[in-house]
């Protein structure tokens, strides 16, 4: 029988949210174990070569890859946080035990608190041949390129003109890869203007009110058909355009990686603005299962700056619930909550504000029922 | 499996079946084949969502009692011709790779000798094997500590989702109305006669109600004030990644409480009984099961230890005190039982559908099952099955 490991706080996922949660919980004095499925700490930050916006407190102007280094250096500067990298949490059992796979072996960990910061997965689109080699999530193509130095293809069709679609397209161009076009079903570009203008300056067409209809190829992608859509997103007949490409990247949104929370029997609500099923949580980011906290994209799809602040809140509150105290606890919590409010202000934050409002309302309804 | 969108519930029916697992859909089909009239099937969730969709999917004839053997022999025949009989194009994935049962104690070996004698008498093509003969059938078998084995090449397994779907679709073609997401809340009676079923979506009046509610059969029986000794018991299973076919038969041990098979898709499905399991509706998974099963199965089939586990899950056995089902009528007129299968409902579904339809239509039974009635508990005539996991 495998031996049962213990710790006070286990943090699942060492992306921006998990790293910040580990630092906060460590600052409080708690014994922390940080588990991540990858070799490198930093989650998606390690492939983000672009500079961040957001508030100064959250590393605005820095590149994601440098933020990852900064945070992981902080986490590993002494031995107060135990890091288990290359370790995948595969189970969350009713008795609170986590099953972790490392080096083809099963390890069992029974923490007193869990902070889930597993992030998100890329959405897929249904269309003929979407399983042909050469169809990628845009994030996967970015990983190949920026982390492993591998060209995903020679000529790419990007589906989705949100920030990820725009940024990855631009990075593909920087890597010397041809981008044939960006296809967007909405009648407008979803990402920031600054990214869209770079794309347009590079001469790449952004086809709004268009969708991918099919991918063609025998063994691998050889081309794709794109069609125009009407206001109801129905394909307009005879509007097909063929693109000769060897790669199709899907940047059509993210969805929270909630498997562990389902296993933990955390209650969830379906909130489209937050990316799908999202855990109910209170303002301390504790879920409906006492002792299980969430932070980052798992708690609702947003971006790295807010993920880091949520990590700070979850880390502080999880440690506090174990009886740990620091003098500036209230200051740090209030500062974090203010920063979140600021980040979510204005028109770009409207969707998130709406999503969080729906989540809280649905939670109240479920508790009342 | 096609989703069956709930339509309007009719006011009247000739029979209402409670439970959309493999037993309920089999009964619906067999009753419809006898032209029984308007047949309604109620399922509180989706078809095969309960024990059927969670079962180990094995089908065997190697039993320790005559009744179980006879029921299983008849069911195997039905599985063999099911694709054709139910006109099921995609196929139910019935694979007759045999069952290899392993004995690890002298007592178990003695029982196997008994069983084989009985099974042979009833025409089951079973053979008694030495450990080295068993290894010829399953080359990856570790025969350490093994006393003997028995093997029946016509045992096997099928896909429970497809079998349920096949019965449901064939039933629907004959007019059966399936109402998913429709929960039986109350059974209406009048002077100990069934009058109807009240659901969360309206009431259906009927003189015939069949309890095929699996682990919930005690709850449903209570609706007509019958206290029947059914109880749910959690059993767990797991599935591995898919690999090339290396394991023909289902391998099973009663004393070590495990079973393991390789599906046509290539994955290995395995499970293990836990003698400490308490009655209850809990069907969450445990890490203890994962470890114990991995240890037990890889000891018997060492190469399986190389495989990654893809998923684990649990379901409920619908237990009776003697591990035999209760089939037939009850003191409440019009209320029939087809439950208490104690972990073997899937493999007995074809014969159960046939027999229950014969009982309801008051026909001569194709197999004498008077020993499986409800009265056996009062009479103290339990039929104890020695060979279960």
Question: What features would you describe in this structure?
Answer:
The complex is a heterodimer of chains A (369) and B (389). Chain A is of the alpha/beta class and 369 residues long. Chain A has 2 domains: 5-121 and 254-368, 3-Layer(bba) Sandwich (FAD/NAD(P)-binding domain); 127-250, FAD/NAD(P)-binding domain (3-Layer(bba) Sandwich), CATH 3.50.50. Chain A has helices spanning 16-28, 64-76, 138-147, 163-174, 193-201, 259-263, 304-320, 329-343, 350-368; strands spanning 4-12, 32-35, 81-84, 87-92, 98-102, 105-116, 120-122, 135-137, 155-159, 178-184, 206-208, 210-216, 223-228, 241-243, 247-250, 254-256, 268-271, 276-279, 292-294. Chain B is α/β, with parallel strands linked by helices and 389 residues long. Chain B folds into 2 domains: 1-95 and 155-229 and 321-389, FAD/NAD(P)-binding domain (3-Layer(bba) Sandwich), CATH 3.50.50; 96-154 and 231-319, D-Amino Acid Oxidase, Chain A, domain 2. Helix content of chain B is 29%, strand content 24%. In chain B, a hairpin with a 2-residue loop joins strand 9 (184-190) and strand 10. Classes of the chains: A alpha/beta (369), B alpha/beta (389). Chain A binds chain B through residues 1-2, 91, 93-95, 97, 99, 106, 108, 265, and chain B through 284-287, 290-291, 312.
